[in-house]
Each structure stands twice: as C-alpha cells, then as structure tokens.
Amino acid sequence: MTRLITQLHPEILLPPDAMARVDAAAANSGIDSLGLMLRAGEAVAAAALRHFPGALRFVILCGPGNNGGDGYVAASALARAGAEVCVYSLVETAALKGDAARAQTVCPLPVMAIERFEPKAGEVIIDALFGAGLTRDLPGAVQALIRAIREAGLPVLAVDLPSGIDGATGEIRGEAFEASHSVTFMTRKPGHVLLPGRLHCGSLEVFDIGIPRRIVEAEACSLWVNGPAIWAGHARDSSAQDHKYRRGHVTVFSGPQTATGAGRLSAEAALRGGAGLVTLASPREALATNAAHLTAVMLSAIDDADDLLEWLADTRRTTFVLGPGFGDRQRARAFAEMMGEAGRKLVLDADGITAFTGAAERLNAIFKCDEPRLVVTPHEGEFSRLFPEIAADRSLGKVEKALAAASALGGIVVYKGADTVIAAPDGRAAIEEKAPATLATAGSGDVLAGIIGARLGNGMPAFEAACAAVYQHGQAALRAGRTLTAENLITHLQPD
Prior knowledge:
Elements: H1 16-28, H2 33-51, E1 57-62, H3 66-80, E2 85-89, H4 98-105, E3 111-113, E4 123-128, H5 140-152, E5 156-159, E6 181-185, H6 190-193, H7 197-200, E7 203-207, H8 213-219, E8 223-225, E9 249-253, H9 261-272, E10 277-282, H10 287-291, E11 298-301, H11 305-312, E12 319-322, H12 329-341, E13 345-348, H13 351-354, H14 360-367, E14 374-376, H15 380-386, H16 388-392, H17 398-409, E15 412-415, E16 421-423, E17 429-431, H18 444-457, H19 462-480, H20 486-491
Parallel strand pairs: 1-2, 1-4, 2-3, 4-5, 5-6, 6-7, 8-17, 9-10, 9-12, 10-11, 12-13, 13-14, 14-15
Antiparallel strand pairs: 15-16, 16-17
Helix pairs in contact: 1-8, 2-3, 2-4, 3-4, 9-18, 11-12, 18-19
Cofactor: Mg(2+); K(+)
Subunit structure: Homotetramer.
EC number: 4.2.1.136, 5.1.99.6
C-alpha cells in the first residue's frame, strides 16, 4: 500500500531531475544532506525489519551514488538491530563521493565486490544500486545479477525505485528487479505509476525525510496522480433551479444500422454520467434499430451536413461525442470541422480520431480557443495515427508524448491504457493508476467518451472534465469486478 504525504492537494509526482533539484535546494537552505540520507537509510532498515521479520540475512547491494549511500546507512541500522547483514558494492569504495562516501566510512561492516555475491535461500535483497535517476541500460553484470536473484526466488526491497526502472518513464532499462516492497522519499516518481515500472515496485511506502513542503512544491511540475483533488471546486453543484439543459445537452453520433451499439454505449454513459439531456444523432437507416434500445436517451435523425447545420442552430446543444462506431471517416471529419467552426465542445474518439490521421494541426486550427474545448481519447494505435512523429520519438516517455500531443493539438489528450495519461496544452498532466485490467474489453472506451461528454456538458473545464471522467470510469470498473462488460460498466457509474 502507498502512504501519501498529503491528500489536501493533488498528489505530486516528481521526475528524477526535479527531485535532484529538491535535494540541492534543501542542502542550500542549510539542511544537513547527510542527515537526510541517515533518515532515508534508517527508514529502509525499518521497512526491511517490518516486512521481512523471518529473513536469515539481509544482503545490501550498493551502487555508486546516493542510492548506495542510503544502502550503507540501512546496513548500519540493521546491524545495530541485531540482524545478520552483508554488504556488496558495485564500485570500489574509494570511488564514492560526498554523502555516500561518508555513509560508507561510518558503516561498521566489510564491503565486498558485487561479483562475489551468490544468492542463498533465506536471504532478503535490499536493492540500493541505482534508484530513480537511471536513464541508461544497466551494465551487463548487473542485468545478470538481477536474473540470478530472480531465479533464486529471493525477495527484494527496493530503495527509491527498483534498479532498472527509468524513474521518469517507467520503462525497463535492460533488466529490472521485481521488488516485493519499495521505499521512496517525499513523493512518488513517474516510474512508480507508469507501466511497466508500477508492476515492479510491489507495495510502496513514501517516507517524509524532512524536506520542507515549500521546497518540494517549488520544484514540482504540473504532474499529478489522477484523483478528485484535481477537479475539486470545478464539479457542478446541484440546484433546485436546475433543469435538463442547465445540466448540459450532450449529442452522441451513432454509426450505421449495423454498427449502432458503440454510439448507444456512449449516449447511455453520458446520461448516467450526469448530463441533463442526451440525444443520439442517428442516420435515418438506423433509427428503428436505435429506437428499439433507447428509453431516456433521445433520438434524432442526422444524415448529412445540412441536418447537422440545422441541429447546431440550437445553441443549447453545446457538447458532442463523435467517433464510436461511426464508420464514415470522411463524414466524421466534415462533422468535426463543423462543430469546431460553430464553437462547440467535442469529444473525438475511435473513427473520429482516425479521420484526422496525421492532421492534428487541422484540429488545432478549427478548435483553437483560450479554453480548450476538444478532447481526444486515443489508444496507442490511434495515437500513432494522429501524432505519428511524436509517437515515433523513442526519446519520449508516455507523459512527454501526451504533453507534446496536447500542445500540437491545442486540446486535451487522453492517452489511454492501464496507465492512462491526461495531458493539457498548458503543460498539466495526470496519470491514472487505479483503472483495472478488466477495462480491456470491447466498448469500455465508448463508455469513457460518453462520461467525458457528460462532464463537459456540465460545464467543467476540459482538462478537469477528462481527469474526472477517467477516474469515474476506473472506479466503476472496480465496482463491476471481474464480470465487467461495457453494458454493466455503465450501471456501476456513480458521482466521484
């Protein structure tokens, strides 16, 4: 489980470079940096004793930097507690610098070269090799060591982040430890939340080592774990004076007669998600099919641009969802451009995204506005089609790709997956961590598009609306459990 420092504000995620600046700022403010290392290492030792009381021996693997320094402090604390401890170093101790060198000097235990380590039953590994700052592949010898420990089945406690996980992107750098438990300091890092890094951390503890919150917040970028604090104050309160149009009119476009289900899922999700009125805009050929399945969702015939132009004449029709099961990409593009030019809010999904393959700049041009009013919801394949150059840039992680795409689009990007990233053109981003794997089922994306439409229709700003909808979608999936389908997912939607 994760222990958070605070829940009064969105949970900050600090990339490794920002955390390095926090450490430097703390030292420059007069805080003893060795004292911070002592608290960090002792927290690791306490976690080791708490989580692995049956360990026959603790094996501390120390790297060349401050992560290794934390390991030497942990080794000293464990030895004082009476545990059997042995220490192995990746480098000659004479090569250590700064606080890491000081921590090693006062450690009473002998330090052996890491090449001498051979896993034995009953040992617990404390990984203090590299932590969150890793940006390159691990050395071959370390990769081989990780494989040997994995094959031996020994539990691992990771200091900061399992070695081999890129703290900024969550990617695996050659090999990575699969920790049973991890201890990090002050805040989580993106690598703790993004995949596959999240799957390697085990249970996670965030320990406050005493750096003032003002220093942490001064270096924080606008990157958070997705949660209700992000949209607090933006949710629309119910009023006795409400009527259905005040709560928002959402129009969802249906596909042709043989592909109506996706649009209905979006429409029903929008209604359940809080819109006051939802209309399914259906081709005439599909009216009877849709009418047979709808009750509270309204139904209207819209076949072509003239029909849509007439529909847009009513300014109360503010919010649209286009793409689920739509099929006709040429018509999807024309409809999207009409809504952009009419100043409407749009959730663009599925076929609507594909209709603009490689043409994000066109969407930017037609939806350009001081306050974003376009939300796109691509999965990985759709993201590659809409933003091919960004998707192909291997130097970028998922957060960086989503932010670059949002900037290019001038709108909100919901980059879907088990670690969905919501990004805004002003540089804000959030990562959803609670959505379960059961959402990998047909129609769940259509439901999400409808919920976003509802939140937009309620008047919530686009970034906050997307964050709230992604969270609401994941919470409904958790309530639905292992029998989740897109249809019963809708029935589990609750205000969040």
